[in-house]
Request: fold
Amino acid sequence: MSQPENKLDKFSSAVIKDAEEQRSKILNEIEEYRKSQMEKAEEEILHEAYIMIQNEIASIKNKHSRKISLSELEGRRKLLMLREELSGKVFDEAASHVLNFTKSQEYLKYMCDTVKKCCNEIPEGNVIIEVKNDDLQFADMLVTASGREAKVETNLNIRLGGVLVNNVSKGIVIDETLDLKISSQKDWFAAESGLSIGM
Reply:
């Protein structure tokens, strides 16, 4: 081989070797770039997936939270209805006993004693004794028990019995109706019976 051919061969070999090194370097850079881009893309996808999962979890929590709240409200509503039903039964039974009492001999004595006690608490003056319609039959005895000028009238709001004594001139009213006594026990009953419902 001639010297120029030898030089050309060496030069070609050097160029090819350099080209292969350049090619290898570029391929390595491309591979590193591809890897970094893939890692970056994976991180972005994972981040987006994480956000989607968190949003879905929050949505599920809200959905279940609403369901739980609605269930709690429905439970409270049912408990309130049950409490009202039980209270109603208890107080219907109590009202029945009170009505039986108003048909007994002791009731007239109770009425007269109550009128006397009320009139002792009210300053002097005429009084109006209000009773349920069935108790008008006791009018004369109630006036006598008052120990003063009095008249007896029907009060349609009195359903169970008892008296409401009113001194109009002094603006004093004493309510000793059995209706009020029963009614005033309802709040006490709700608190003491263990049927109260926390809100």
Notes: Residues 124 and 148 are 8 Å apart (CA to CA). The beta strands are 127-131, 150-154, 162-167, 172-177.
